[in-house]
Amino acid sequence: MSVGLSLAADEPGLALLVRDLHFTAAGGGMLLLAVRIAKTSPDDDGRLAPLARHIFARHPFVKLVVFTDDDIDLANEGELLWSVVTRSNLRTDCTSFTDFPNLPMDPSQGAAWLDARGAGDGRAGRSVINATTPFRLKAETARSFSSPPSPCWED
Predict the structure, then answer these.
(1) Is there a contact between 31 and 64 (Cβ–Cβ < 8 Å)?
(2) 127 by DSSP, 3-state: which?
(3) I need a surface site. Which of 5, 6, 63, 134 has the fewest CB within 10 A?
């Protein structure tokens, strides 16, 4: 709720992109924020990184933002992961920002962990994954099934 309110107050143009927000259980209810987006023009593709920066600046416990298209049920973590796997290329669609403070409650952002990973500068960063279809490809992109398949052990 506070994420949506701060967007509406500070960045109404960016807020228009947002259709839903969901803090996932996997992120302890605060580290991982899924954001459902409704793009209306090709320019909206370039507005997601500034939107992520806004979220990180106003909500200091958010570590990862995942943007999805408006056909994803954010409360369904299977659909969220499906969108990451099928609608993002992590080489081009994952961006990290190192100009935000590290999160002291997250062990992966502590000095020992960062040193073990080769980040000797001590900056962990916040990341955003763009798991949305590029606007110009939306007309030719469709889900191959209405919702992600159930795991085989549920049949």
Answers:
(1) yes
(2) strand
(3) 5
Please write the tens of the pLDDT for every residue from 27-66.
888 999 999 999 999 999 999 999 999 999 999 899 999 9
What is residue 151's three-state secondary structure? coil
Pair of tokens at residue 38: 């409704």
Q: Are 48 and 128 a contacting pair, CB within 8 Å? A: yes
**Phi/psi of residue 46, each to 5°?**
-85, 0
Stated pTM of the model: 0.85
Secondary structure class of 129 (helix, strand, coil) = strand
Structure tokens at 31: 């580290």
What single string gives the DSSP state of each residue in 29-95? Answer: TTSEEEEEE---SGGGGGGHHHHHHHHHHH-TT--EEEEE-TTS-TT-HHHHHHHHHHH--HHHHEE
What tokens does 96 get? 């990290």
> Both tokens of residue 39?
């793009």
Q: Transcribe 9-29 into DSSP letters.
A: HH-HHHHTTEEEEEE-GGGTT
